[in-house]
Amino acid sequence: MSGNKQALPIACLILLALASVLLAQDKNDKDQPGTLTVHIRDYCDPVSFANIGCVRMATPVANGIITLPGFGAELAADKSVGAWRFVPDNAKAEDGLNLTLQNLGGETHTFTRVKQFGGGFVAGLNAASGNPTPAPECAKVAANGSLSPQPASPDNIFLPANSNAPGPHVAEGERAKFQCCIHPWMRTTINTKDGDDNGHDHDNH
């Protein structure tokens, strides 16, 4: 009997040790950041956008159908062009997120972390989209009012057409805003905070 009595405490200790390991592993799994791919889209027509730059892969899915005049007409009417967008335009996660960026469009775009949404470094597109004040993370403003792009960085990523790149990390508890500094209506909000905030932002277009 004494052997059985000694075996019981040892078995309990082993079970407790196993439970501690499993709980620690479960906690570590929960604390690991998730991953999210952000698709960057546009539908520029390579012929009419030739002077601006529009490079298309030779696949039917990638064909651009929006001409430069059509782009201008929609921008004038709506202050944005719907086919030029980030997908998703908002996302939520309980933990942090590592972002991957995939430019499915024919133009170069930026994916830039900003404190507040604003204009980019192309004055004409800022004015047409109703974003006269550039986000400082996007543009440097000269004394004469001219704009130039901020240098590329891990939080200001320039993506050529048909390219992929690792994106910024969004920390747990953060509400991060990203926009294109060329087409400033292209925006997304990544929300890792608790609560019912749906991630939509009420800044200008």
Task: Write up what this structure looks like.
The chain is of the alpha+beta class and 205 residues long. Helices cover 23% and strands 26% of the residues. The protein is built from three helices and eleven strands, in the order H-E-H-E-E-E-E-H-E-E-E-E-E-E. A five-stranded mixed beta sheet has the order 3-11-10-5-8, with no helix packed on it. A four-stranded mixed beta sheet has the order 2-1-4-9, with no helix packed on it. Strands 6-7 form a two-stranded antiparallel sheet. A hairpin with a 7-residue loop joins strand 10 (175-179) and strand 11 (187-191). The longest helix is centred in the N-terminal third of the chain and has 30 residues, at 2-31. It is globular, with a radius of gyration of 24 Å. It starts with a helix and ends in a 14-residue tail after the last strand. 31% of the residues are buried.
Topology as a string of helices (H) and strands (E): HEHEEEEHEEEEEE
Number of distinct beta strands: 11
Mean residue pLDDT: 85
Main sheet makeup: 5 strands, mixed
Lateral strand order in the biggest sheet: 3-11-10-5-8
Strand content: 25-35%
The percentage helix is 10-25%
Uncertain runs? 21-28
Radius of gyration: 24 Å
What is the oligomeric state here? single chain
Q: Structural class of the helices, strands and pairings? A: alpha+beta
Note the topology:
Blueprint (H helix, E strand, L loop, with lengths): L1 H30 L2 E8 L26 H11 L6 E3 L2 E3 L4 E7 L5 E6 L8 H6 L10 E3 L5 E3 L6 E4 L4 E7 L4 E5 L7 E5 L14
Parallel strand pairs: 1-4, 3-11
Antiparallel strand pairs: 1-2, 4-9, 5-8, 5-10, 6-7, 10-11
